[in-house]
Design a protein that fits this description.
The protein is α/β, with parallel strands linked by helices and about 375 residues long. The protein is built from 11 helices and 18 strands. It has 2 domains: about 5-160 and about 330-365, Quinone Oxidoreductase, Chain A, domain 1 (Alpha-Beta Complex); about 165-310, Rossmann fold (3-Layer(aba) Sandwich). The protein has helices spanning about 45-50, 95-100, 155, 165-175, 190-200, 215-220, 235-245, 265-270, 295-300, 315-325, 345-355; strands spanning about 5-10, 20-25, 30-40, 60, 65-70, 85, 120, 125, 135-140, 145, 180-185, 205-210, 230, 255-260, 275-280, 305, 335-340, 360-365. Strands 3, 5, 6, 9, 10, 17 and 18 form a 7-stranded mixed β-sheet that branches. It has a 6-stranded parallel β-sheet with strand order 13-12-11-14-15-16, with helices on both faces. It is globular, with a radius of gyration of 20 Å. The relative contact order is 0.15.
Length: about 375
């Protein structure tokens, strides 16, 4: 039977979000109803609200989520009622051309719930990243649920569902950082600081954190594992590149990570590499930016330039591992939680995010 819960929607482009009644349908054969315990406020949710991702309003926002499985469809085998899970938006299908060749992290046909959540008048909602979890409950495919250690704080665990996994995965998986290498990370929001923490976990011995905001560069060194930092406010692209080179014996870093996705940080990351160094782009660019560099620079510098989708993660492998590392005090997952808020505070949290006052606001449900 269907259920009615409270949730946060974006009704039209640019309008403030609103809390309203959401109808959760009875789960289909492979669907799961999850009682949401905590959901992080991600920049992607703001992008949905502003129409920067697609124009399929109204959206049910929220996707960085931990909760407990409450109800399962008749064919569900992956999870059971009572399981503590983190939700993911790359539930691999196992059948597409990527999956058939063993490249499941690039699955082209990820699973979502078979039924639509709606407003009370029947209007179908588009869930953010196929999840839609700024709500007391949500409906997802069983493959979107990853079981993790139930001793973890839901506010911390849920952040692995998107931004933190994207950042740490960009360092560990896409960048393939090796012990003893040097790393430079450009942009220190949640994704960038997660990349810094990932570089430290991977054994990098020189980790340079770069941001306009001195508060963030200090946090990178004091909390997340950076060995050096550059507060780049007022500096040109070339000045930042030169500073990174000075910190790496004139050579440039072995691995650079653009965690913003704008042209200046892309240029800084590209030209701050050592010869044959590896650059990772995990920051999401807008729809109109174009990368324009001399072709000889792409050829002559060698190495690689890679985008990182979801940190090239495999949720079933990576989510439990990083939860366990946090519980062992080996990964600072809990330090990304800046504040705990109610479902009524999402719009205000977007303003805090834009000002750079928080790493993650997390909506916590009783």
């Amino acid at each position: 039977m269907s259920q009615k819960v409270q949730g946060v929607i974006a009704r039209e482009k640019g309008a403030e979000v609103e809390v309203t009644t959401i109808v959760i349908p009875e789960p289909g054969p492979h669907d799961v109803v999850v009682k949401v315990q905590a959901t992080g406020v991600c920049h992607t949710d703001l992008a949905y609200r502003d129409g920067d991702i697609e124009d399929a309003f109204p959206f049910l926002l929220g996707h960085e989520t931990a909760g407990v499985v409450e109800e399962v469809g008749e064919a569900v085998t992956h999870v059971a009622v009572g399981d503590f899970v983190v939700l993911n938006w790359r539930a691999v299908c196992g059948e597409c051309r990527a999956c058939r060749k063993g490249d499941t992290k690039n699955c082209f046909n990820t699973h979502n719930a078979s039924k639509k959540m709606t407003l009370e008048d029947g209007t179908e909602l588009k869930p953010a990243l196929g999840i839609g979890s700024f709500a007391e409950k949500t409906l997802v495919h069983e493959g979107q649920c990853t079981k993790v250690n139930p001793e973890e704080d839901p506010a911390a665990a849920g952040l692995l569902g998107c931004g933190i996994m994207a950042g740490v995965g960009a360092a560990v998986n896409t960048g393939d950082i090796q012990p003893g290498e040097s790393v430079a990370v450009f942009g220190l929001g949640g994704v960038g600081l997660a990349a810094v923490a990932g570089a430290a976990l991977a054994g990098a011995t020189k980790i340079i954190a770069v941001d306009l905001d001195e508060r963030k560069t200090k946090a990178a060194e004091e909390t997340f594992g950076a060995t050096h930092s550059i507060t780049s406010k007022g500096m040109s692209v070339d000045q930042v590149i030169e500073e990174v080179r000075q910190l790496t014996d004139g050579f440039g870093a072995d691995v650079t990570i653009d965690a913003v996705g704008i042209i200046p940080t892309w240029q800084q990351a590209f030209y701050s590499r050592d010869h044959a160094g590896r650059m990772v782009m995990v920051g999401v660019p807008n729809m109109t930016d174009k990368i324009d560099i001399p072709a000889i620079d792409m050829y002559s510098r060698g190495g690689s330039v890679k985008p990182a989708w979801y940190g090239d993660c495999l949720p079933e492998r990576d989510f439990p591992m990083y939860v366990d590392l946090h519980l062992q005090n080996r990964f600072p997952l809990g330090d990304f939680v800046s504040e705990r808020i109610s479902i009524n505070d999402v719009e205000a949290s977007f303003e805090s995010m834009k000002k750079g006052d928080v790493l993650r606001s997390v909506v916590v449900f009783d």
